[in-house]
Amino acid sequence: MEALERLGGIAAARDLLLLTSRRRLRTAVQGRAVLQAGHGRYALPVADQARRAAVLVGGHVTLLSAALHWGWEVRMPPRRPQVGVPHGRPLPRVGAADVHRLPRGTTTEGWATSPLATVLQCARHLPFADALAVADSALRHDAMTYDDLQAAASGRDRAVLLHATKVAANPFESALRAIAIEAGVPVVPQFEIHARGLVLHPDLVDPLAGVVLEAESWEFHGREKHAFETDCERYNALTATGWRVLRFTWPQVMHHPDLVRAVLRDTYAGLAA
User: What is this structure's pTM?
Assistant: First the structure.
């Protein structure tokens, strides 16, 4: 289901219904394309598939599959379940899952890696944007604190965990921030701006350069008109008060990051001229 994928693979009903209809959601649940993951929350079936794969190999759910297990949104749900087997055991071949060996000392809870171990493994083994989205989600859901992450960080994962924040609204915003960070753009999430009588908190802001980055989503049917008018008011207020606003869509951020990087490069080249 595209709406659920855009929300990170797991979401509350109220967020899903901004992007789709109740009828489509009900049909997806009845067809098992979407699973109910608790009261008012829905998930893609990959989380349940990962549990079954872990049982099959005598291991644990890990990486993005573990993040979904803990109820965290991810940049893109894994196409196949991700599971790990304890160190020292033979590495089984399972065609329907990605199986790897867990490092020595990996902590687990139930049939998944522990919340902290999940964030650390993602930071160490996944691309920066995916890892940052997981760390942001863990903090947003109060699974741990920023200080917990910094105390556990070492080596490669430190570069990811230093940038993690609980104020990131969703994985879409996290992915856009990751692109900006890798491009050397010093953005602050949800930075407060006062413009034409409005108090705004754009997705990402470079306060010194006067640049705003917005992760532009889409909404379903009847909500579109109000959202469009609000977006126009926000955009005009920012532009009228001297901010340079860059707006990026979900497909651009998730599937065409080079395009986003090129826009950032050209924008900052113009500012320096």
Answer: 0.87
